[in-house]
Amino acid sequence: MGRPFLDYLDDSGEIYECRRCSACLTSIKLLVSKAFRGATGTAYLFKHVINVYLDKQDVRDMTTGRHMVRDVYCTNCNEKVGWFYDMAYKKDQEYKEGNYILEKALIKERKSFSDGAALRLSTSSSSSTDNDKDDITV
Ligand SMILES: [Zn+2]
């Protein structure tokens, strides 16, 4: 019952879900960086995300330069959850290509499936001051 057409991550660590519909999106093992910034605030970079679809390509000027990106939407509820890097125009930003950004305000963290599905509020003081990775979409 519920979400039979969705994929699930077989993971014992923390997972990230769509805040609106709780579809499973990705896991902490796929997390690359928490030092990003989106329209809603803090954003995370992930190597891979499931249960999402991509919008058409769009060239955007961000704080770290020009990128070709696509908006990322939850397959289940069609809510925008972040964006995907198709291409970076600057050499030193190429590590982001093929990776996904999920905005923290649009997702939620869950400890694990074996944890009684208890929602966990993020209490960790993520005091990242690493600002040179920030990306801002307009
Ligand atoms: Zn959703």
Automatic annotation (TrEMBL):
GO MF annotations, alphabetized: metal ion binding
Q: Which PROSITE patterns match?
A: YIPPEE
Q: Superkingdom of the source? A: Eukaryota
Q: Which residues form the Yippee domain?
A: 14-111
The record ties this protein, via Pfam families, to:
Yippee-Mis18
Do you know which InterPro entries this protein is assigned to? Yippee (IPR034751), Yippee/Mis18/Cereblon (IPR004910), Yippee_fam (IPR039058)
UniProt key word Metal-binding: yes
Its transmembrane ranges are none
Tell me which UniProt keywords the record has, alphabetically.
Answer: Metal-binding, Zinc
Give the UniProt family note.
Belongs to the yippee family.
PANTHER family annotated for this entry?
PROTEIN YIPPEE-LIKE CG15309-RELATED
Q: List the protein's name.
A: Protein yippee-like
Gene source species: Panagrolaimus davidi
List the top taxonomic levels of the source: Eukaryota, Metazoa, Ecdysozoa, Nematoda, Chromadorea
